[in-house]
Amino acid sequence: MGSARLAHKTGSVLRAVALAAAAMLPTFLLASALLAGGTPAPDEASMAIRTRRPRAVLIATGPEGAPLVVVDAGHGGHDQGAVAADGTPEKQLTLAIAQDVAAALARTGRLRVAMTRTDDEAVDLTERREIARAAGAALLLSIHCDSAPNRRARGVTVYTLSDQPVDDAAAALAVRENRVDGGADLLAETSDVPAILLDLARRQTAADAASFAGLLARALVPALAPRQVFLRGAGFRVLRAPDLPAALLETGYLTNDGDLALLKSANYRRALADGVARAAQAFFARRPAQAGGVGR
Ligand SMILES: [Zn+2]
After folding, report:
1. Which end of the chain is less enclosed by CB atoms within 10 A, N or C?
2. How many angstroms separate the alpha carbon of residue 124 from the centre of ligand 1?
3. pTM of the entire predicted model
């Protein structure tokens, strides 16, 4: 997989820079070859088995060249996430919601769709975003449920990556969501990539992520009214990829009885999922030049 060919396909210098960064992490490219149906070299295949690196689970193949959206169900396995008063773990709700979101994205007929997990397994936070990058994702959406000491707190929040959290609550949430990840931040170690080029790629990615987050917040308002949809930034590790627009959706508060009932309701999840699908379609309609994703 030569970065020159990919750069030609995407027509973006910034993408090429980001790909150069990805090329320094060769194992990440394995999943891309496997997901795309390519035949990995024997040594690559054996390495994939040996390391048991999780791969994106393809949900919908979509039309040829369609952008790939990766839906990430937060937590899983030993990492339960927050736990509701009735004992429902966040990991269970995030998986149900993520599956509904993936199904709604698939129903558009215009997108390829994959998930980072489709059962109750633990996946490292850094690995989640690398699964998405390796699969050639054009967009990553991580699904979570919020919690707060104040049981009256409720509502939906769309987060994008920010190193300056908007307030203490956002900073605390990022700390909570990042806590399960004991791994190093691999991208911070790619010091061979000139910082200024990586910074350029990050800026473009941040602009794309903000664009999607704005579309998502707007798309969710009619589905969720009269509940509010907030748009915020915080330092979520799962969102920290220089070349992949990503957002994290806090779908409601486990600690609020009303929100918990909604999160368990198929109707609410369907409305939420349809909102995500509308936002994703609008997002890719705005940026057709990059619709192929970096891994195609
Ligand atoms: Zn969470």
Report:
1. N
2. 13
3. 0.76
Ligand 1 center from residue 75 Cα (angstroms): 6
| 40 contact partners, CB below 8 Å, separation of at least 6 | 30, 33, 34, 48
For the purposes of burial, counting CB atoms within 10 Å of the CB of 114, is it exposed (0-12), middle (13-18) or buried (19 or more)? buried
Question: Domain coordinates of the chain in residue numbers?
Answer: 3-290
pLDDT in tens, the chain (296 residues): 334 333 333 334 344 444 444 433 333 333 333 344 334 444 444 344 334 467 899 999 989 999 999 999 999 999 999 999 999 999 999 999 999 999 999 999 999 999 999 999 999 988 999 999 999 999 999 999 999 999 999 999 999 988 776 677 788 788 778 866 444 444 444 556 677 877 888 889 999 999 999 999 999 988 787 778 889 988 888 888 889 999 999 999 999 999 999 999 999 999 999 999 999 999 999 875 454 444 33
Whole-number Å distance, alpha carbon 47 to ligand 1 midpoint, is 31
Architecture label for domain 3-290: 3-Layer(aba) Sandwich (3.40)
20: Cβ–Cβ under 8 A, 6 or more apart, which residues? 3, 193, 197
